Structure formats: C-alpha cells, structure tokens
Amino acid sequence: MKKIAVLPGDGIGPEIVAEAVKVLEALDLPLQLDWADVGGKAYETSGHPLPPATLKLALDADAVLFGAVGDWKYDKLERSLRPEQAILGLRKALGLFANFRPAICYEQLTHASSLKPELVAGLDILLIRELTGDIYFGQPRGRRTAVDGHFPGADEAFDTMRYSRPEIERIAHVAFQAAQKRSKRLTSVDKANVLETSQFWKDIVIEVHKSYPDVELDHMYVDNAAMQLVKAPKKFDVVVTGNMFGDILSDEAAMLTGSIGMLPSASLDANNKGLYEPSHGSAPDIAGRGIANPLATILSAAMMLKFSLNQLDAAARIEAAVESVLAQGLRTADIWSEGTSKVSTIEMGDAVVKAI
Amino acid sequence: MKKIAVLPGDGIGPEIVAEAVKVLEALDLPLQLDWADVGGKAYETSGHPLPPATLKLALDADAVLFGAVGDWKYDKLERSLRPEQAILGLRKALGLFANFRPAICYEQLTHASSLKPELVAGLDILLIRELTGDIYFGQPRGRRTAVDGHFPGADEAFDTMRYSRPEIERIAHVAFQAAQKRSKRLTSVDKANVLETSQFWKDIVIEVHKSYPDVELDHMYVDNAAMQLVKAPKKFDVVVTGNMFGDILSDEAAMLTGSIGMLPSASLDANNKGLYEPSHGSAPDIAGRGIANPLATILSAAMMLKFSLNQLDAAARIEAAVESVLAQGLRTADIWSEGTSKVSTIEMGDAVVKAI
Ligand SMILES: CC(C)[C@H](C(=O)O)[C@@H](O)C(=O)O
Ligand SMILES: CC(C)[C@H](C(=O)O)[C@@H](O)C(=O)O
C-alpha cells in the first residue's frame, strides 16, 4: 500500500484534483489517499498556508498530488502567510530539488499556440529546473544600508543567489541521465558572463559531463535561451537550469505550446519521492465554474505513477486515455476550437476514466 | 559642436556602425565623431576590453554610438578580460541606469515573427530595464563555504541581488514619464512573491506612482510576464523591470517581433547622456560578409539624436528614411522574403542616405 498525500489547494485546485483522483481510483491500485488543506484554504482553516499536519502528511507519504495555490484575496497578507509559501515550504522540507517541466505540443492542439504551427508541431522539450537552491532560499536576504552601488547610505533590499557544488552536481546528474533516455542532447542555461554563481554552475556541469560522454552538452546564456525558445523551440531537447532562470524559462516554454492546461510537472527528491502538480496555476477567475481543464493534473498523476510508484503500466494507461479523449475531440474551454466538443471538468475526467 | 564617441567593437560591429556614421554625416549636423576600440578588438590592441583611452573618450563625449562586442574566440579569457566587460564597465562608469528597449513589429516585417501575424501586427512595446543595479553589480559575490542550504560546509558560489531606494525611485520616474508620453499604462515586473529585493521594488514603484495619478500601474511576476509576452504581447505598452529580469524579457520581447535586426536601444544617465546600440549582438558568424542589417544601428543613431542631442528633426528624418527603404522593398538577408530585394549592409546604408 503506497500513501499519497492529496493537497487540492485553492482556486480550481479542488476541481482538477478531484478528476485526477477519480482516474487513479479507476485504476484500482494499492494506494491510500489522504487529503489535507494547503495554501489559502489552509490559511483560512488553520492560520498558515502549510500547517504542521499538512506538512507531516506530505513527509509521511510516498508521493504528493498537488492542485494549485493562490488567490488575489490573499495578496494583502504578509509574505510568510501567503499561499505560495506552502509550495516553497514543501519543496524545501521534502528536498524536492529536481523539477521536471515537459513542454509538449499535442498534435491536436498545435493550432492553439501563439507560434506558427510549423515552429511548434511536435515540440517536446524537457526542462529540468533546480528547485531548492539559488536566490529562492539563499541567505542572507532582507533590508540593509547600501554600502556599494550608486547611493551608499541609502536603504536597500537584497537577496543572495547561491549554489553549492553538491547541489549543482546532483541536478546535473539528473539532467544528463534524462538526456541519455532521450536524444542525448543537453543544454545548460546560465548567465556565466555576469554571475559568479553561473560560472560555478557551468564549470561543474562541464565536470559532470565527463561521466556522460554519450551526451552532447551545450551552454546558453539565459537571455539568449529566452530568445531561442521563441525563435526555434524545436532546437531544444533537454534543458537544465537553476531555480530562478528555470522559473522564467519553464513558464515561457510551457506557454509556447499553447496548451498549458495540458502540461504536468514533477518535483523529485534524491529517492524519487515527488510532488506532482499541473504547470498552470490556481486560476481563481474560473474557479468553481466547472470549466477548468483537469488533464494537466491527470497527467501529473501519471507522472507520479511512473517516477515515484514504479507503476509504469498504469501510467501508460492514463497517457493513452488522455490521447484517446483528445482523439475523440473532447475539449475543455481552454483548448476548445471549432469542430470539437466542449466538455466540463467533470465530463473530461469521466471520459478519461471511460477510456481507461 | 557635440562630441560622439564611436565604438564599433567586434563581429559585425564595424560594418553596421560605418553605415550609421554615413547616415549621421549625411545629415550635416554639428557633430564631432571620435573613434576607439572596445571589446575583443580593444583586448587585442591594448590588452583590455575597455582601455582607459576608450573610457575617457566615452566619459568626455556627449553620447556614445556603440556597435557590438563579443566573439567565441574570447571565450577562454578570464571573465574580467572578456569583451562583455566593456559594456558592463561603460554602463557603470557612465551611470547609464535607464535602458530603453523598444520591441516594435514593423508592418512590412510582421511575417518574419515566430508568432501568428494577428498577435504581433502593430506590436509596440517599450521595455525599460534598470541597468546599473541588481545582481549585475551587487556585492558581495564570489566563492565561499556554504553556511545554509542542503550542504553546509560545501564550496559554493554566490552573488548579491540588491536595489536601493533611490535607484528604484529614479528608474520608476523614468518609466512613469515614458508611460505618460504613450498610452499611460505601465507594467512593473518583479518576483515579489519570492524576493526581498522585488518586494522593495514593488513598494517603491507604488509610492512613486502617487506622483503620476494619470498613469495606470499594474504589477506582474516575471514568470507570468515571460508567458504573457508569448500569449498576448500587444497587451503590454510600457514595462519597467530590474537589470536581471530586464535582460531576459527585453530579449524575449525583441525576438517576438521577428526582426531583432531592426531594433535600436538607448542607455541613459540622469542627464540624458546615453549609449546607443542595436539590440542584437555581434553575430561573429556573419561578420565581414557584408550582409548584416545596419538598420538597428541607424535607428540607434536616431534615438541618440532624439534623447541626447535634442535634434528631433534629424531623428525624424532618419526614421522616415528607414520607413521609406522598407517601403521600397529593400531588405538585408535577415529580413528578406519572397518578393523583396536583397541588399548588402552597404547598399542598405546607401539607400537610407538617399532617402534622407
Ligand atoms: C508561486 C511561486 C513561488 C512559484 C515559483 O516561483 O517557483 C511558481 O511560480 C512556480 O514556478 O512553481
Ligand atoms: C553582454 C551582457 C553582459 C549583456 C547583459 O547581460 O546586460 C547583454 O546581454 C545585454 O543585454 O546588453
């Protein structure tokens, strides 16, 4: 019996997670599902976005199925109480350092991309973002009196970007191994022409490369990567980068596909325990209307079965079922187009269950 | 007599700057042009990418016309000697804190964009990037022994992101004033949900907003901005952001237009002295072949006349001449398409002169 912590969160989170759970239950696997509040919902029920009980459930579980957190109504809370602290807290406490962000353009949805179809048809990028280091968690940070810069003596705010050798080594190994399983090409993105942290990152990625001579490695500056993703996204295969640049580039890459409502993600620790969540956010503007696309969350459940629970067959069945509902022409509002059938969140979940 | 420091630099720099100079000379203005080496070229002639003589020329000038720096052949040099240190050094020494990066989609070139024409036709974004603060110059930076993070005791590299109050105030004023001259809408981009520096940035932008009640201000996280630029670029008008995020987003926005070879840029100090350069790089792969597009550099010269030399008529004449050569169907290789006439760098420069 494997334990799954189910954390639906805010906005459309509960609706889309319910469909993923329905799909998991249809597979009749030895799973024990335990629910808890997280994000704004948890703040409302227990005064903190990541209450101790929720954290304990996640720590004790074999995997976490996560919906989404955040809503404008929490914007006025002090930072430590805002919903997104839950996701940062979970990443840190669970040591989820390897974030897998596929950017896949589904054949039937190519037209939904902002880009010309020939540039995105068949797009399949795997962006691997380091998730527990960098400027997200670096110390010191806060307010101080400026010592350098153009206005010494003025008030300033500061943060620390940082990466240690073992942190870079372990994400580099994850990335090279992922590249070995795909096209054997890896692009490491940094800003080594400006940042000490990036130069260190680049040096260590080059060292780790020695253990993976079958993988072709190249390096790209982050500004250039942001451009090349727009210009010729299909030139990328596996991309590895730090937490901050990965935040920006993984979202840019996801949006290129035109169907971010389809994209799952996995955040793994060193033992393949992971947190699985859709790449999109909590979309409070459409919450409760039954129109959100549950497929990214359903595909996140498939990733969970594959990466954390070693249920490769079950994962493949979900993926095939999703392909099948798309082939049947079923579409939630976000991916709907002329000639396809518009379905609700629940109808989409039901269709996936039926296809399984 | 106004003094212009002309710094052609590396790669295609000399070719494109020569055309801009030709255009300036055709206008018969009271300008004194003085040349100096910069970047890799300067390293080769004097052992440093920004030799004292070049820096002095730039400091003494009323404006700097800059080509581009960088070539793969300098990749092995230690960081402080690499070509890009010249541009960082000039920004810092001249106090060029306000970088104007227009992302304009020219009517005749809309087809060259990766994006569907309806998404970019008429696109006209002005991205304002702070250019002398942030993690680019923050101290301390370097190597140390990790104190926090997952591997205390390990070697790590680090950098400091920082902004002081007056640095944020002055760029905010520049941005609000630019917005007042356009659609009166300003988007400030930050990562205030994670970074102390960003929260400070956001707070101060909100304060400065009080002096510009006619401007509508909104805030966007950098990851979302990277997405919205792809999804609906025309929703943006004036955007202001820090040095690091601005580096990434300004290049992404430029690439959306499909004709980065057309986009000028200005980097201004507090007194409208500025450095003007094309948004694209030194393109060493096509250097010396006479095929580079000089229009971004020619339009940078127009920005120079407008912002630093108060020669509004002359600037308008250049802009009109560029419109005219495009209308004539003249295209360098990067923007060429079926049915237009392919011209060389020099032919394009000549055509602009003729149109003036
Ligand atoms: C909510 C926020 C803290 C988070 C991040 O920046 O990592 C989000 O953007 C993401 O990418 O998961
Ligand atoms: C060359 C590099 C240091 C520079 C930067 O990052 O600012 C460049 O990318 C730019 O945007 O002008």
UniProtKB/TrEMBL annotation, chains A, B:
PROSITE patterns, per database record: IDH_IMDH
Sequence similarity: Belongs to the isocitrate and isopropylmalate dehydrogenases family. LeuB type 1 subfamily.
Residues binding NAD(+): G281, S282, A283, P284, D285, I286, A287, G288, R289, G290, I291, A292, N293
Record-listed E.C. numbers: 1.1.1.85
Site (Important for catalysis): Y136, K191
Catalytic reactions of this protein: (2R,3S)-3-isopropylmalate + NAD(+) = 4-methyl-2-oxopentanoate + CO2 + NADH
Function: Catalyzes the oxidation of 3-carboxy-2-hydroxy-4-methylpentanoate (3-isopropylmalate) to 3-carboxy-4-methyl-2-oxopentanoate. The product decarboxylates to 4-methyl-2 oxopentanoate.
Subcellular location: Cytoplasm
One Pfam family here: Iso_dh
Keywords: Amino-acid biosynthesis, Branched-chain amino acid biosynthesis, Cytoplasm, Leucine biosynthesis, Magnesium, Manganese, Metal-binding, NAD, Oxidoreductase
CC cofactor note: Binds 1 Mg(2+) or Mn(2+) ion per subunit.
Pathway: Amino-acid biosynthesis; L-leucine biosynthesis; L-leucine from 3-methyl-2-oxobutanoate: step 3/4
Positions with a binding annotation for substrate: R91, R101, R129, D223
Quaternary structure note: Homodimer.
Residues noted as binding Mg(2+) in the record, renumbered to the chain: D223, D247, D251
Highest taxon above the source species: Bacteria
SMART domains (UniProt xref): Iso_dh
Name under which the protein is recorded: 3-isopropylmalate dehydrogenase
Entry cofactors: Mg(2+); Mn(2+)
Isopropylmalate dehydrogenase-like domain segment(s): 3-352
